[in-house]
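Look over this today:
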Amino acid sequence: MVTSSLRNVSRPAQAVGFGSDEVREKDPSGSADRGLPAGYLGRWAPQPPIWMEFRSWFERRELLRDVVFAGDGVPSGRGRAVLLVPGFMTGDSSLAPLRDWLDRTGYDAEHAGIRFNVRYSEAVLSRLADRLAQIHTRLRQKVTVVGHSRGGLLGKVLAHRSPRMVERVVALGAPLGDPYDLHPLTVAGVRLAQVYNLVRYLSPASVERRFLRDLEAPARVPLVSVYSRTDGIVHWEACRRPDAECIEVDGSHVGLTVNPEVYRHLARILPGS
């Protein structure tokens, strides 16, 4: 059963470092800081079996029955702006329950306008920057960016480039400290996305270099990283970094968007924006 607790909140975090030792061993030239190393296949252990990600179905069911989803005891958002960014190989629909909850609790929540998050980061960021500017202009206030997995990485870099428009970034299961510390199946998906971008858009992997530099740079707005030690996709250590408020919860990677404990933390964090 998922329980709510603030005991696992820490600041600052001890990060594993940007680019794990395993990655650097496979890429001693240091090019790991400029893109996914050619020979890197991901890391199997120590990580929960990926089939445990099916827990997300049970986590969603638990959320729908939880008082936090009904809004009981949740402070009003008072119209605060929130931009939701989906994870790798997902779209806006994956964050529909979160947007519904935010709207019902008084926030002005908007989707990013992403159907399938596989484009190279710079291409996605260009659209996100336009979306952020539209919301900022319409509401005349700074925007909190909540991103799941890759969406959290995009949110961090978006805030780095537009700090005057972003209140804070909340990343859910995002490898902010080491974007390469992933399950091998996820790395395989990244490889396929690279091929897709090269064939469809003639975009080589080298276009990610600026993005990776901005991701590694110190956060320019408050940064929150929510992670789980039982994440079957992203190694939990990779979600921690010294300039972030790191919050540990119990649950799957996919289920972080429907995890009642995550919603309780959001109910605490977002009103402070």
